[in-house]
């Protein structure tokens, strides 16, 4: 079992502590939190060992799980890597692209593994359909949330939209050609609602909307590709796949047939992939353990996290 320690015991940090403690692939050694009052509460309530300094925790583990505020991601990760430790770092990977690129260099130099916490990659609705995605040419994503003061210190692009940016980059596999975007600050000092249009070199276009001032929550992405429409509901963990194939010569009474202007007939049919019940955060942590133990590539690499941050910053620069 890999010895793991958590830096940061806030809302998400507590979830990571709980799951690492439950996992068969990790031995939770303890945690560090800069807020000593909070740290003592967590230690007293859950029994996790509190380490007084970041350095002491890093020395005691094989894997450092970084769930601190984004501004400190780079310093924590750099220190851990320099001690030869594998790092799991929450999204966004760092505060700047330059910091993210520096971490990638360090990981290669010290021959350790790194993974970024883009948890939607492990959403069961997405994993159920990802192998059906084949060169989508138009993508539409909506990620709407009710207002919550937590996270409003950064633009909604880094708070919410970055989830969809990462998903889309993982699917399209093409360089970004052009971005146009707009954002509006309604309650916060940074934009609370944003829309971005990303054009890729291969011709794909992605339209993304994110809001943290909505009356209801929504996390839906729709993919349009040749002969298929695929919808993913990340919130409800549901997916819908509508596909087309050449119509049979003698269609049945209940077959759905479309005919285009050229007279070509297509049959519409529905696929219903199985959506397994899972804990996406536990899955991302355990697949990272597998990558370390088997010396394989992590599911969400530091490169992936860097590119998601790069595109997010390109969007913010358009505001």
From TrEMBL:
GO terms for molecular function: nucleotide binding. Residues 156-216 form the GFO/IDH/MocA-like oxidoreductase domain. InterPro entries: Gfo/Idh/MocA-like_OxRdtase_N, Gfo/Idh/MocA_Oxidoreductases, GFO_IDH_MocA-like_dom, NAD(P)-bd_dom_sf. Gene3D superfamilies: Dihydrodipicolinate Reductase, domain 2, NAD(P)-binding Rossmann-like Domain. Residues 3-118 form the Gfo/Idh/MocA-like oxidoreductase N-terminal domain. Pfam families: GFO_IDH_MocA (PF01408), GFO_IDH_MocA_C3 (PF22725). It comes from the Bacteria. PANTHER family: BILIVERDIN REDUCTASE A. This is Oxidoreductase, Gfo/Idh/MocA family.
